[in-house]
Write a structure and sequence with these properties.
With 66 residues, this protein is mainly alpha-helical. It contains three helices and no strands. The mean pLDDT is 85.
Length: 66
């Protein structure tokens, strides 16, 4: 799938670019799931959405940025 998207966007598809694109999309999806799972905990405890953001980013800022 990543190879097809790369070929459509750039016009020249090589297998290395496909591997890098698949790897990068996997990291993005993993980070998104990690962020949302940490966000749901304060929401389930009854905090508002705007109040849930601060503790979520305090927990996940360093792992996501490193």
């Amino acid at each position: 799938m990543a190879l097809g998207i790369w070929y459509y966007a750039v016009g020249n598809a090589i297998i290395a670019a496909s591997i890098v694109a698949a790897f990068a999309s996997g990291i993005v999806m993993d980070d998104t799931i990690h962020l949302l799972s940490k966000y749901l905990r304060p929401r389930r405890e009854g905090l508002l959405a705007c109040e849930s953001i601060v503790p979520t980013f305090n927990l996940v800022d360093r792992p996501l940025l490193s």
